[in-house]
Design a protein that fits this description.
- By secondary structure, the chain is of the alpha/beta class.
- The chain has twelve helices and nine strands.
- Strand 2, helix 2 and strand 3 form a beta-alpha-beta unit.
- Helix 7 packs antiparallel against helix 8 and helix 8 packs across helix 11.
- The N and C termini lie far apart (56 Å).
Amino acid sequence: MTTDRPLISVIVPVYNIKEYLPRCVESICRQTYENLEVLLVDDGSSDGTGQLCDQLSAQDSRIRVFHKENGGSSSARNLGIRESKGQYLGFVDSDDYISADMYERLLEGLLKYRVPIAQVGRDEIDENGDRRPDICIPPKQEEQIASADFLRELLLHKGDCSFCTKLVDKRLFQDREFPLGVLNEDFHLLVKMLPEIEGILSLPGYSYHVFYRMGSNTRKQGKNAFSRVYGDNVDNADMIAKMVEQTYPELKKIALRFGMFQRLDYLLHVPISLMNRENDQYQRIVSHVRRHWLKGMRNPYLTGKNKIYLTLFAVTPKGIRQLHRRFKGIEQ
């Protein structure tokens, strides 16, 4: 193993994933950059995945395993951060896999441009082996993106907030953790780092490969399912509004667009059965849409379609969803 180059710690939260974990771990261990450690954090698995972690560790001395009670992906990542020995941290989800040169490319970029975060493109492969449409399109050549510009792209839903596509200087995690009990935790943590750095390096190409499973906790598994991610996204929008007010005032209109868009997303997905007076979050979201409707109509970053939906939801949110269901053939 090469020891005269920085150590990279790759943290993998693991929970009941026996079928896909070997592919994930193998893709990390075959990296062209060999001076790395792999931290498998077993988050209370009950299907034998914990034992599989121990078996994989016996095959490669760079793999370290930690077993803990179930607490969610964020708690597993946080344990990995505390136990990591590397100067740089990477994160891989246990059902995904990475290209062999991913971390070598990312580290070379960090050292070349002296930035604390570098990222690469990702693609998504579904359970049938088909590639899904790109969420984010990587640049055609290396690109340094200033923090304000990167935040702007995130708020326009063009940027990539995932820590899985990134290599990060561990010092950015000092006194900082992934939030517990929420989804879209990557966005929540990344935007808090941005004011502390000058920017992010973005590399061309697709090196991180997402395996799109309908069983993942942020994806609907049934027509009546409602992931709390929609509500968490609204909370993130409120956090962003305060941050922009203090740090990036030039992004205020874009932050308003972001907040309205996230609320529309909530209103388009919340089951009609939950659109009632007892649902405090629903009531707050409708109230916000109505109070800020005029600003939304004047916002240049909201599309005409966005504004039509804002108007309809401001007038009769439940009625619009009932019509939407009828025309879309959705049963709720």
